[in-house]
């Protein structure tokens, strides 16, 4: 399905929240990913004794889950939806930490923004946890990988 206009802007060009009341309630899932680039030293700490502030991966995971639930508070035109499940996977690699978040609901609108917010917040929490050891840690490539449910069905990044 291709959108030829912006749905969150009215005919006068003013922001509006889309009315989704006529949409069908369906199971909807979205998966987003991102990456925190950090130093070899931080990677070794994450794989071993941990960073000085504590369990960075646990903090990042909880931050992501909490952020998914609070997305409408952070993204002005995002609908509040009942979040039925959030899974945050963190994979320590030689270059940093890969973040994958999957969010699930049964509602009238999708959860792509919740998945993106989850990944971004998990990345921010991770940067906060490692900044004493690596001030240059960077969050990259935050993006939706897949969504399913609703009228438009399934979409996957090519």
In short:
This protein has 158 residues and is α+β, with helices and mostly antiparallel strands.
Characterize the largest beta sheet: strand count, sense, and whether it forms a barrel: 5 strands, antiparallel
- N-end to C-end Cα span: 16 Å
Uncertain residue ranges: none
Helix/strand order: EHHHEEHEE
- Main-sheet strand order equals 2-3-1-4-5
Count of DSSP helices?
A: 4
The CATH topology of the domain at 40-149 corresponds to Alpha-Beta Plaits
Gyration radius, rounded: 17 Å
**How many DSSP E strands?**
5
Nearest-integer average pLDDT: 93
Family: Belongs to the MoaC family.
Subunit structure: Homohexamer; trimer of dimers.
Protein name: Cyclic pyranopterin monophosphate synthase
Function: Catalyzes the conversion of (8S)-3',8-cyclo-7,8-dihydroguanosine 5'-triphosphate to cyclic pyranopterin monophosphate (cPMP).
Task: Please describe what this structure looks like.
28% of the residues lie in helices and 29% in strands. It is α+β, with helices and mostly antiparallel strands. The protein has a domain of 110 residues: 2-Layer Sandwich (Alpha-Beta Plaits). The protein has a 5-stranded antiparallel β-sheet with strand order 2-3-1-4-5. Strand 4 and strand 5 form a beta hairpin. The radius of gyration is 17 Å and the shape is elongated. The two termini are 16 Å apart. The model has no long low-confidence stretch (mean pLDDT 93). Belongs to the MoaC family.
């Amino acid at each position: 399905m291709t959108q030829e206009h912006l749905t969150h802007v009215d005919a006068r060009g003013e922001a509006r929240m889309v009315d989704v009341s006529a949409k069908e309630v369906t199971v909807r899932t979205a998966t987003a990913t991102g990456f925190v680039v950090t130093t070899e030293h931080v990677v070794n700490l994450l794989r071993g004794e941990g960073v000085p502030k504590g369990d960075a991966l646990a903090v990042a995971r909880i931050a992501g889950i909490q952020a998914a639930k609070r997305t409408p508070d952070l993204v002005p035109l995002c609908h509040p939806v009942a979040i039925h499940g959030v899974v945050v996977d963190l994979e320590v690699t030689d270059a940093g930490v890969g973040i994958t978040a999957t969010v699930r609901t049964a509602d009238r609108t999708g959860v792509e923004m919740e998945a993106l917010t989850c990944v971004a917040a998990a990345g921010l929490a991770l940067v906060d946890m490692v900044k004493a050891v690596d001030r240059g840690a960077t969050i990259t490539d935050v993006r939706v990988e897949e969504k399913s449910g609703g009228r438009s069905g399934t979409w996957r990044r090519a």
